[in-house]
Structures are given as structure tokens and as C-alpha cells.
């Protein structure tokens, strides 16, 4: 309930002149971008976490069969450890979304910010908040950059030598192009969503809702779907390609055979996510080797070899085999849309 609903003099728009009211749409756009950013970060974390858990379980069962499992060394590796650099408005909203919607336990999330004393509400939940970027990066296997563009170069200089090869850097700093970010961080494991805004659009973003509550609203959640233009904000689909190549890199880091990685991808992400699969499983799309690598590589790769390590910056900037598969298969697009909504517990079927 909005307690200011009937108190016009206390509302945001009251003091704005008529000639400036044409700019009010920017408020809705800003909120829409925040919601989209948090939604896509949550979705990626869910996929990343689910695949890591399945890979760990798979390796554990194989190790048990030969009696070589070292639980002490693998338990900590299996956990998703997320670090956030930047404790401003975006960093706070992202923290709430990850805690509530992934959900991440407080001990799996840490924040590095210049003002850790301003994050007492998160510290009370058990989240470590400090100002030591290199320490955060050395601990985490996923980093979210939620800082200002002017702050990014010194941050990159601070963390680049602590970054592990398999640590994903997820950047919300849209003003810094991917090639420049790759150079600053000296890593290829970078994801950066890119959004485009329409000039005229309906503001559906729920001005008085918390971000976590907004993402449990079916109308708002469907508007954040990767293939949805609702709300006037569209996501560059190259981000979705980067997400799946990032998942392949998880298997490569675990030295898993490419055939086994594909099997797990299909099992975890394309298994029974659509009602048609229950009646005709043969019609369900399946990821294949040729979807991710070129035909020359397909002919020369051995069955038990892992995928190559993919440069995620190249994936998001250039055409890939997966680009062709995504653009040509509306069935796969539909499946990924169902997967996205299912991950938030929202059905695509509209209620009467």
C-alpha cells in the first residue's frame, strides 16, 4: 500500500513544472533497467549454481565408485561464492535479489565497498562487508561490478592479479566497452548485459514495489524475459549466448568430457520444461556439439576431450555457432523463455 497515494503535495511529481513533466518517463525507465539487471543476474546465478551442483554430484558419484573422493577439498569448491563490488543503490538491490530469489545463504555473499559502515542491515544478516577488493576477488568464483564508470579503472588495477581464470566477472558498468574491460581486467571470463530502451513505452515496472516483490509479479517478470520487448526495454540476446558459453566453461574447468557436459546441460536446462515434452519427448530441443563449435572442430575432437576454453568477450561481440542456433530455432527460444520463467516460479500460461 502506498501511504502517499492521497497526499499529492508529498508525491515525487508535485514540484515538477509542466514543461519538465515530459521527462518523467525516465524515472520508469531507470526502475525498469534496475529490475531487468537484477532479474538477469538472478537467472544467471541460478543456472550457474544448478550446473555446479550437478557437476559436483556427478564427480562425487564417480569418485566414490573408485574410492578416491576427498570431501574436505571438494565441499568448499562446490559452493557458489558471490562477491559484489559496490554498495550503492544497485549493489544493495542486487544483494536483496540474490539473497531472496536465488536464494543465496548470507555466508556465500560478500560485499566490498568504500563505506561498509553504511551496510549494517546486511551485516546483521551475516554478510561480510568490507573495503578490500582483492581479498573479495580471491575468495569468490563470481564477481558483480556495481561501481561507477570513473571508479572502474582503479578497481580493475586492484583486482586483476587476484582474479582466477574460472572466476566470472559480471559487469553492470555499461559505459565501459567489453574490449576495454577485457584489457583492464586481463581476463576473458566477462559477462555484460546490454539493454536498449524504446522512446515510447508503457511503464509497467511497479513504482512502489521492492525489486524482489516486483520480480514475483507475473506481468513484470514476463517483461524481463530475454526475448520480451514489453516495458520498452530489450536485452541484447548476445548476453544469453555468453551465459551458455560460460556454463560450458564450468565443465571445462572441471575437466569434463564435452559429451558429458552436453548431457548435463540437456538434463538440467532442457528436460521437461514444456508441456509438449511430456507427450512427445523426441520433439524437445537438445544441445549438440555443433551448436557451440564449428564443423572443423567437431570433426577433430575426441569423445572424451573437454570443450575448449571460450573467450566470453568474443562470444558477446562476434557471431558464434550458437548465434545461428538461437536465431533459427523458435522452439529453443520458447524453451529458454519457459526455463527463465520457471526459475522464478512463474508460469507463462495466462490465467483467465
From TrEMBL:
One Pfam entry for this protein is F420_oxidored
Residues folding into a coiled coil are none
Alphabetical keyword list: Oxidoreductase
Q: Per the UniProt entry, what is one GO biological process?
A: L-proline biosynthetic process
- InterPro entries from the UniProt entry: NAD(P)-bd_dom_sf, P5C_Rdtase_cat_N
Q: Which residues cross the membrane?
A: none
* Keyword Amino-acid biosynthesis on entry: no
Q: A GO molecular-function term, please?
A: pyrroline-5-carboxylate reductase activity
Q: Which residues form the Pyrroline-5-carboxylate reductase catalytic N-terminal domain?
A: 81-169
Q: Which domain of life is it from?
A: Eukaryota
The similarity annotation says: Belongs to the pyrroline-5-carboxylate reductase family.
Function noted in UniProt: Probable oxidoreductase.
- This chain belongs to the protein called NADP-dependent oxidoreductase domain-containing protein 1
Amino acid at each position: 500500500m502506498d501511504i502517499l497515494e492521497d497526499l499529492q503535495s508529498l508525491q515525487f511529481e508535485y514540484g515538477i513544472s509542466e514543461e519538465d513533466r515530459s521527462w518523467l518517463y525516465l524515472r520508469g525507465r531507470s526502475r525498469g533497467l534496475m529490475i531487468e539487471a537484477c532479474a538477469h543476474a538472478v537467472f544467471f546465478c541460478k543456472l550457474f549454481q544448478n550446473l555446479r551442483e550437478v557437476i559436483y554430484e556427478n564427480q562425487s558419484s564417480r569418485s566414490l565408485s573408485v574410492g578416491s573422493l576427498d570431501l574436505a577439498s571438494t565441499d568448499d569448491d562446490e559452493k557458489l561464492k558471490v562477491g559484489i563490488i559496490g554498495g550503492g543503490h544497485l549493489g544493495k538491490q542486487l544483494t536483496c535479489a540474490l539473497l531472496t530469489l536465488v536464494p543465496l545463504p548470507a555466508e556465500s555473499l560478500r560485499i566490498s565497498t568504500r563505506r561498509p559502515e553504511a551496510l549494517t542491515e546486511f551485516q546483521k544478516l551475516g554478510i561480510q562487508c568490507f573495503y578490500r577488493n582483492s581479498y573479495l576477488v580471491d575468495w569468490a568464483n563470481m564477481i558483480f561490478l556495481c561501481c561507477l564508470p570513473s571508479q572502474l579503472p582503479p578497481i580493475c588495477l586492484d583486482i586483476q592479479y587476484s582474479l582466477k581464470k574460472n572466476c566470472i566477472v559480471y559487469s553492470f558498468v555499461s559505459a565501459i566497452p567489453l574490449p576495454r574491460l577485457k584489457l583492464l581486467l586481463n581476463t576473458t571470463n566477462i559477462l555484460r548485459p546490454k539493454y536498449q530502451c524504446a522512446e515510447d513505452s508503457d511503464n509497467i515496472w511497479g513504482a512502489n514495489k521492492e525489486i524482489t516483490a516486483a520480480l514475483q509479479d507475473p506481468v513484470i517478470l514476463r517483461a524481463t524475459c530475454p526475448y520480451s520487448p514489453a516495458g520498452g526495454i530489450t536485452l541484447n540476446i548476445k548476453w544469453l549466448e555468453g551465459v551458455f558459453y560460460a556454463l560450458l566453461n564450468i565443465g571445462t574447468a572441471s575437466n569434463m568430457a564435452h559429451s558429458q557436459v552436453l548431457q548435463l546441460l540437456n538434463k538440467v536446462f532442457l528436460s521437461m520444461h514444456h508441456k509438449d515434452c511430456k507427450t512427445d519427448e523426441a520433439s524437445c530441443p537438445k544441445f549438440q556439439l555443433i551448436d557451440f563449435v564449428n564443423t572443423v572442430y567437431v570433426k577433430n575432437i575426441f569423445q572424451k576431450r573437454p570443450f575448449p576454453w571460450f573467450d566470453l568477450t568474443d562470444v558477446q561481440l562476434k557471431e558464434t555457432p550458437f548465434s545461428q542456433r538461437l536465431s533459427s530455432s523458435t522452439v529453443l527460444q520458447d524453451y529458454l523463455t519457459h526455463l527463465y520463467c520457471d526459475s522464478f516460479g512463474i508460469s507463462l500460461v495466462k490465467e483467465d
